[in-house]
Design goal:
By secondary structure, the protein is of the alpha+beta class. It has helices at 3-19, 41-50, 56-64, 73-82, 87-97, 170-181, 201-209, 220-227, 312-321, 324-333, 346-368, 385-397, 407-412, and strands at 108-120, 130-131, 141-151, 156-164, 189-194, 213-218, 237-246, 263-265, 281-294, 297-303, 380-383, 415-418. The protein contains 13 helices and 12 strands. The longest helix is centred in the last third of the chain and has 23 residues, at 346-368.
Length: 440
């Protein structure tokens, strides 16, 4: 069996597992998904995963064939309304569990944590997602915010926390995903790579309590607060420090008055889930790294990785690897058509985001395992991901039991050169989502 057939079988088995007990994923258990329809539970999930940027009518024809026997748009919306929010998250987790992991140094799973804003259908009456008129948009706009744990070496979304744009909280989302990942147990340990938006004692503590590792960028000001000293004049450093976190500033109440330099005050408004009425102090051991990533440009990194396994050069490499998550967000928005949403309601937008993440994982697993001949070429070559997505989407869409597609062969003939080390300025601007009026 080819790898593409194996991956498809794994995903379809995960869908069958959900369909075997639809009551768990239906809004009205015992009523929804109980009758035999043209678009049943499995068909609805599979169609959601393979949708592109067309209108709903064209999406139905693409999946079922251009026939009068195809379900109507109303039938699609009725079925979609029955699906519970957590159904696609369960499918994402179930599918991922069956896939093999690529490990750093044969031991660590590298997990990037970052967020990305997604412009959605304009609705001024939704205070949670609507941003009023400004220099970015004279009419105002609505946004959802995607927080994700992303496996760098597997090019795979592990978990998602989707929030209304006006209620985005990267700290809270990080803790939710860290707790959902749970302790390492018998599996590989994870290293959470995060940006400055993840730098907080609470995030550090959640990862440590789950027996995992982290490497998080930190501003000079926060790093100085952690170390209790100035960074002025420091070009590179690798310092171990132990902090005792407390909400009280009273020296008389300290359990370890012999270490006054270790105490850090955490005010009441700052979340720290491990400081409670019964636990008034929390000790945390950290390692502060300062690296020069380019002449005159420095980054601070906070970690709990052991120094006998990771040195300064390792941290520079890990810092650059985190950028691949930005590429993943670009891929789900454009090749995977997330910019062309089919829904206006926030609930259904969240479903489409999760569906695109599952399809991204499906396409990545197939594309990364395609063997591309490298001999006699100036550059190393890799699969053209945009073309691979189209191939894998059509491959997953096949459900008539007759059609056959050689996905690997199609991916191999669409390749591009890998040119590492290139850098481009990041352009931050508002991009209006594709209008419903301009779809066929």
């Amino acid at each position: 069996m080819k790898h593409s057939d194996s991956v498809k079988a794994i995903l379809l088995a995960a869908i069958d597992s959900l369909a075997a007990d639809p009551e768990k994923y239906a809004k009205r258990p015992g009523r929804d998904f109980t009758r035999n329809r043209k678009l049943g539970f499995k068909g609805l999930i599979r169609m959601l995963l393979t949708m592109e940027g067309e209108c709903i009518r064209e999406e139905i024809y693409t999946y079922f064939g251009r026939s009068a026997a195809a379900p109507s748009k109303a039938a699609f919306y009725r079925q979609l309304h029955k699906l519970k929010d957590g159904a696609l998250r369960c499918l994402l987790l179930s599918f991922n569990r069956q896939l093999k992991n690529n490990l750093f140094n044969g031991k660590y799973r590298l997990v990037a944590c970052d967020g990305s804003a997604l412009d959605i259908f304009r609705n001024p009456d939704d205070p949670d997602t609507f941003y009023p008129p400004s220099g970015m948009s004279p009419k105002g706009y609505n946004q959802a915010y995607i927080n994700a744990f992303y496996s760098i070496l597997d090019r795979r979304f592990i978990d998602l926390v989707i929030q209304p744009g006006r209620k985005r909280n990267e700290y809270s989302a990080f803790c939710q995903m860290a707790d959902a990942a749970g302790p390492a147990g018998d599996g590989p340990a994870s290293v959470c790579l995060g940006g400055r938006g993840c730098a907080s004692y609470n995030n550090f503590a959640h990862v440590i309590e789950n027996g995992q590792f982290f490497l998080i960028r930190c501003t000079d000001k926060k790093t100085e607060g952690i170390l209790g000293r100035s960074l002025e004049g420091m070009r590179e450093m690798d310092i171990h420090t132990e902090c005792i976190l407390s909400r009280s500033q009273s020296k008389k109440q300290r359990a370890h008055p012999e270490f006054p330099e270790r105490y850090r005050h955490i005010c009441r408004d700052v979340p720290l889930d491990y400081l409670t009425d019964d636990r008034r102090e929390y000790s945390i051991a950290l390692r502060a790294i300062r690296v020069e990533i380019s002449p005159g440009s420095f980054e601070n990194l906070i970690t709990n990785l052991p120094d006998h396994e990771f040195d300064m050069e390792d941290f520079k490499e890990l810092y650059h690897l985190r950028w691949s998550q930005e590429n993943a967000y670009r891929d789900i928005k454009y090749p995977l058509c997330l910019k062309a949403l089919h829904s206006k309601k926030y609930e259904y937008v969240a479903q489409e985001i999760r569906a695109r993440a599952i399809l991204h994982n499906f396409c990545s697993e197939i594309a990364l395992n395609v063997e591309i001949e490298q001999s006699g070429k100036k550059y190393e070559y890799q699969a053209n991901y945009s073309e691979a997505v189209k191939t894998c989407r059509d491959f997953l869409r096949i459900h008539d039991g007759k059609s056959v597609m050689d996905a690997e062969s199609l991916i191999v003939v669409n390749i591009e050169a890998d040119r590492p080390g290139r850098a481009f300025p990041r352009r931050k601007r508002f991009k209006i989502p594709m209008s419903f009026c301009y779809r066929n």
